[in-house]
Specification:
The protein is an alpha+beta fold. It has helices at residues 6-15, 17-38, 47-64, 69-92, 97-122, 143-150, 259-267, 270-282, 298-312; strands spanning 131-139, 157-158, 161-163, 172-176, 202-209, 213-223, 229-242, 245-254. Helix content is 46%, strand content 20%. The protein folds into two domains: 6-122, no CATH class; 131-304, 2-Layer Sandwich (Alpha-D-Glucose-1,6-Bisphosphate, Chain A, domain 4), CATH 3.30.530.20. A hairpin with a 3-residue loop joins strand 5 and strand 6. Helix 2 (17-38) runs antiparallel to helix 3 (47-64), helix 2 (17-38) runs parallel beside helix 4 and helix 4 runs antiparallel to helix 5 (97-122).
């Protein structure tokens, strides 16, 4: 949270508005469920305060750990479960409130881990077939500047994307480099998320190109859950709208996303974040884009803390 400005907070709240709103609805449902199960005895007249504090903690999480979308879903789901159990316990064990709070808190912590693991395990498993996306976005950069940044060329680096030399088969290897914690880098949030010298993340083939138009085929390693090759076709057209502005029209047909990836990309408004990142990088200004941040999470921070503690003992 170093040098976090009001503009950063505002950007994160707006970009993550959907996943935050879903979390708030789940927490509100949890409070309501606890009250219904207990006949109003779980939180009594304090239920508005419980709701406000719970929502504030979720929002704080999403601001501090904007890349932690797994926890942003796991925390409110765990809150629903632990609040329901707390409501049930308050019917029978109302006199043992400290014990109830401890049990509900312990259940919440375990449930967060379980729900995060469940969502991660579903990643790539629920096939939804071919997806067609159509995007139109106004950019505050010239058409030429955007084309130089967005259109793929061998041996260049643009933001997190770097390409290698074109092969004899016409394919261009591409790597997507992000910073973030992993077991391999001892949960160091500032370290590369994956080794730099690794096999390409994908291969690109330029099928058609002009100054303002590109047709690009992207081939990903492996196959989807149905055994089909993972690939996409992206049709990009850039229309000048002024000396320092343009309209970008993108049509994409692909089978790269499963249901979890598609839903969470929408919940996090990944397209908005991508184009904001592009605009700022092209103009050489600092960006609040979440994809440009170290992809740190709350669970990684906890693992990092305990790992550091163990090393210092």
């Amino acid at each position: 949270m170093t040098n976090l400005t009001f503009a950063d907070v505002r950007y994160r709240l707006i970009t993550l508005r959907r996943i935050t709103a879903l979390g708030i609805l789940l927490i509100a449902f949890g409070v309501w469920l606890a009250q219904v199960i207990s006949g109003g005895g779980a939180f009594g007249a304090l239920w508005p305060g419980v709701l406000v504090v719970s929502v504030a903690l979720l929002v704080l999480h999403n601001v501090i750990y904007p890349a932690g979308w797994l926890e942003a879903l796991g925390i409110p789901l765990a809150a629903v479960l632990s609040m329901a159990v707390y409501g049930a316990m308050s019917v029978t064990y109302a006199a043992a409130q400290p014990v109830m709070i401890f049990v509900a808190g312990l259940l919440f912590a375990v449930a967060v881990l379980v729900f995060v693991a469940m969502i991660a395990a579903l990643h790539g498993k629920i096939v939804i077939g071919e997806i067609r996306n159509n995007v139109k976005v106004h950019m505050d950069v010239s058409a030429r500047a955007y084309a130089e940044w967005a259109f793929e060329r061998p041996g260049e680096t643009h933001g997190s994307r770097r390409t290698g030399a074109i092969g004899a088969d016409g394919l261009i290897p591409v790597w997507y480099d992000f910073r973030g914690p992993s077991e391999e880098n001892s949960f160091d949030a500032q370290a590369p998320l994956a080794p730099i010298n690794r096999t390409p993340d994908a291969y690109l083939r330029i099928l058609e190109r002009s100054e303002t138009h590109q047709i690009l085929q992207t081939v990903m390693p492996g196959v989807d859950a149905k055994g089909n090759p993972k690939m996409s076709m992206t049709y990009t057209t850039i229309t000048p709208t002024g000396p320092a502005s343009c309209l970008v029209t993108e049509r994409e047909v692909h089978n790269l996303y499963d249901a979890v990836t598609y839903a969470t990309a929408w919940l996090r408004d990944g397209k908005r974040d991508y184009y904001r990142d592009a605009s700022d990088l092209i103009q050489g200004r600092p960006t609040p884009a979440i994809r440009r941040l170290p992809q740190d999470t709350l669970l990684a921070a906890v693992a990092r803390h305990f790992g550091t503690h163990e090393l210092s003992v």
